[in-house]
Amino acid sequence: MANLNFAGKGFTFFKIHFVNVILSILSLTLLYPWARVREARYLWPETTLGGSPFFFNGTVKKFFKGYLLLLLVIVLTVLLALLISMLLSTPLQKSPGLLVLISDLIAITVALYISPIILHGSLNYRLENTAWRSVTPSYKGKLSELTPLAFQNSILTILTLGIYTAWFEVKLNKYVLEKIQFGSLRFSYNGNAKQLFRIYIKGLLLSIVTCGIYSIWFFKEYYAYTIDHIVVKKDDHEFNLKSDVNSLDVFEMMVGNFLITLFTLGIGASWAYIRYYRFLINHCVIPADFSIDSIENLVEEETETLSAHWLDRLNPMMIL
Questions:
Q1: What burial class does residue 26 get, using C-beta atoms within 10 Å of its C-beta: 0-12 exposed, 13-18 middle, 19+ buried?
Q2: b/e sequence 193-217, b meaning 16+ C-beta within 10 Å
Q3: What is the pLDDT along the chain (320 residues), one digit of tens a residue?
Q4: pTM for this one?
Q5: How far apart are CA 199 and CA 217, in angstroms?
């Protein structure tokens, strides 16, 4: 079988996660990179493809640099927002509502610019430091391309009160997957925004009518649609991944995670995370006629010149 499989254990992850949370809080998040690398080194080998485990060889040092860079960007933008608010506080003191609106717009703008930086940094760090057999994945995306894509489509999503979400998601999935390589494998996404929008609107309306009960079927349909429209390409051949999820699987995962977290007062979040992680991986099916032994590690020559754009020179590496 060429299937993906995750065999992580909740208690083992709890022992790692509990220590990580405590140390991250006590260090004012400075030990957060160490904590995330520690978690990745447990989760990756528990994930297998065709019986062969993945490995994570990332270092805390590289992650720490990216994390400090992100913290610096956040601090500078917050200081800038405070400065603008102070400058506007006097002329707008008779219009406090307008001042609050401007402050909110500044906060939203900052968040929209930071989000693609986090996504890019996570993809960069995760894939560059992942290995399976002799195969090393890679992410070829550029921050100078991802940032305007994410920012513009986020604005449209906000202006349409969330209606544009499906179109934004399809564009983002297409960009990210086309930039990922797994040895000789390439990826793409052939989802349709109108179809995804129908899933969203049906899920929203029926979840309201059923007091949230339909969210189980919505999640099933959404997960299946996402997985079923991921295309894997090798040479001239291509195939779609498939989902084998059913409503009972989703019910057990969602309701179980809710009860575990609720009745343990949050302590069971580690078990809930492992259950969710296992659900996402184990229900993604690779066609039986695809041979994983055909995956080769291709080392391509760098023909593309380094981008002069300042965002591409930033090129952070981190996991959030």
A1: exposed
A2: eeebbebbeebeeebeeeeeebbbb
A3: 568 999 999 999 999 999 999 999 999 889 999 999 999 999 999 999 999 999 999 989 888 988 888 888 778 877 877 777 676 666 655 666 666 666 667 777 777 878 898 999 999 999 999 999 989 999 999 999 999 999 999 999 999 999 999 999 999 999 999 999 999 999 999 999 999 999 999 999 999 999 999 999 999 999 999 999 999 998 888 999 999 999 999 999 999 999 999 999 999 999 999 999 999 999 999 988 888 888 988 766 555 555 678 788 877 788 77
A4: 0.89
A5: 10
